[in-house]
Amino acid sequence: MNICYFKKLIIFALLFFLFYSAKSSSAQTPAADSAVADGEATLGVARMVEVSEKNVKDGSILSAGKKGAVLTVIPYDSQVLGIVSRDAAIILNNTNGDNAVPVISTGTVYILVSSRDGEIKKGDLLTSSTIKGVAVKATKDGFVLGSAMENYSNPKKNESGIIAASLDLHYFNSKPVFPGSLSDVFKLVLLPTKEGPGPLFKYIMAALVVLGSMVLGFFSFGRAAAKGVEALGRNPSASRIIHLGIVFNVTITVAIALAGLIVAFLILRL
User: Which domains does the chain have, with CATH numbers?
Assistant: First the structure.
């Protein structure tokens, strides 16, 4: 009996230890969040980007421009490169420019925000605005920067503050694209980003190229075959030349189909 009691005591002690450890680890999660909010760390990998403006503040939103990166002034800007963050965890220096700043495009970062489009609550989506380099609360479908990790409120709409945010650059659509309205589908397909055409647009274009090449090759081969059979019936003595003509047309048809596949592959590689 004493041995059984001793075993039960050991099992109880182990269970108590596991429960206490789980409780301690869960209690550390808010502390980690508060550490991010207090400015102790920025979680993300930044890359140096050459900007065309001077004295760019941390937390500013940079967008791709014709002459380099610029502070965005376009609401729901789809050309956003990321957020300026000089205290990023890792900074990759891939430029020798004198006016380069570290930019984060994914991860946890501090971002300049304004309450122009409403008070920002934790979890709200953020997007670019007409205020230079400053984010606001996203109130409609469009290209967003990510979600807020803190609340922000300021009665002075044109002033800005800085909060922690989780970056996730993407197009937000409150309605499902499939099924969805035709305008929503085209809006998503034709939306340009800093990397170039969207993936869905590239797949559609590649499919159209392949389909077009197949249709063109089919009609070309069908027309050549019909004329070859007709010529063979009229002049059987020239069958060799007619057969060579049919083979030549078949070769052209195959070449058209292969060209379509190659072009489609190049489109997907963009």
Answer: 42-175 (2.40.300.10), 199-268 (1.20.20.10)
Q: Which residue has the tokens 């989780």?
A: 166
The stretch 207-221 carries a mean pLDDT of: 77
d(CA 261, CA 85): 43
Name residues whose C-beta falls within 8 Å of residue 163's C-beta, 6 or more positions apart in sequence: 37, 110, 111, 113, 120, 148, 149, 150, 151, 152
Residue-level pLDDT at 41: 47
User: Who has greater pLDDT, 76 or 220?
Assistant: 76
- Lowest average pLDDT, out of 6-10, 60-64, 216-220, goes to 6-10
Strand bridging mode 135-137 / 142-148: unpaired
- CA 126 remoteness from chain centre: 15
